[in-house]
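Technical note accompanying the year-one report. For the benefit of new consortium partners, we illustrate the data format agreed upon in the data management plan: each record pairs a sequence with a structure-token string. No post-processing was applied to the example shown here.
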Amino acid sequence: MTKYNIWFFSSLFVALIVAFPIITVFFSFFNETSNYFTVLKDTFLFDYIFNSLIILLFVIITTLVLGVITAYFVSFYEFPFSNFFSWALILAFAVPSYIYAFSIIAFFENYGTAFSILTYFFGENNYNLIIPKVDGIIGAILAISFSLFPYVYVLTRASFYYQSNNYIEVGKNLGLSSKETFFKIILPSARPAIIAGLALVSMECLSDFGTVSFFSINTLTTGIYNSWLSFDDLNTANQISFILLLFILFLFSIEIYSRKEARYHQPGRGFKPITKIKLNGKKAFLPLIVCSLILFLSFLFPVTQMIYWTVKFPKYFQDINIINININTLILVLLASISIVIISLFINYGSRISKSKILTYLTNFSISGYAIPGVILAVAFITFFSNLSDFISDNFSLKSTKSIFIGSILGLILAYFIRFFSLSFNGIKSSYEKINNSIDESAYLLGYSKIKTFLKIHIPYLKTNIILIMLLISLEVIKELPITLILRPFNFETFATQAYIYASQDLLEAAALPSLFLIFWSTILILLSSKYILSKKN
């Protein structure tokens, strides 16, 4: 029998907060369509869907190849700098795809960086004729792929670790070559992890706004943003959001299923760690070159480009109030990470001591917020609180409450909570499951109250994981673009919004400085958390 106590109502409240963007989008889809949506349906809506799916298809293929190849090399072979590459390859997480897009354009544009390099080494000439123009859909695919392939790399690498050496020996005994062993034994065993990684890539790809917007590609996300900003048509924006949300929720369900399947890939009693094959000379050349090239293209290339622009145009150090941007970003990072972690601890502890099935269902629903793209969440956020403000004003003769949640720090933190709650909740839950219930019972027998047990026993055990989760949430908040761009207070800029605004105004050299700061802080956070991310136990 369900106990209707503080834990139940707290979980219900969190679930409702996460649910309201989805509910808003759902009901908006069935509202009367505007003239703009009717025109859009007959003209560009198919292009939105087609372009989104084309980009998704090639991003999946590219990240699959990049992620699996790199994971295979560092997992099964020992070659020069292999240990370095095992963690360095995840640094691509520090470069959001929209900043990678700036780098591509800056490098390949007329009289850009490539032109300057060729002029320096080979003298004056019209090199623009031979420099390829990497823009449009091709540019978007490259930018998104190199930013997201670590999802596949990290999960596939973890799965490869759990490949017992017994399986490989069986392949050898059956007379299989190394190539056949890889495709018939190793790769199929890692399939759940690979699919989970690709599902995460797919959700992030379909959710992307900054990259496709910068390349002027009509996708579902740009259609949502333009419907709101250019045509002031929230209803149309929500109706397009509904279409995108269907794709995202489908991918979200695949990711959850794959994650469950991946649990079976844990070492058993007969587990033998893989003995890495040591490569020297010519044999080490291929993995060394491949890993070096991918590291360069995914991380060093955009970083170098941003440094080049920053050094070449030092005047922007004076034009950009970098101190304020640092402070603004720090405020959002601290408020979001602390509040999300505290609530996650509270909800997890409530689920632990109440043992209610309904409570479990509510908390499981609460993690669906991560599946909601930032641009959908922001538009649904505005729609919901605009309607709520109108309702309060009309029925209770009160002033508009819209400004409390829209264009405010409070609104931003609430939106971040919906978006990133699952990251915190699942992380704490996984650690909580390792604390045996008998420990709680022993504490109660010693006279500990439930609160004292929580503070004196649970928190010290969870401390390391709490710090990690705060680091990961901080990383997500720093890189988040559409939510911050749409819901931020007036003239309140972060690294992400400042870089995007400059780039959208074709001031790439000005966008370099905030982009470089964003990459710098993201890299610090990744390095601090990399030990856990690459842990063989996770």
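Partners are asked to follow this layout when depositing records. The chain has 25 helices and two strands.
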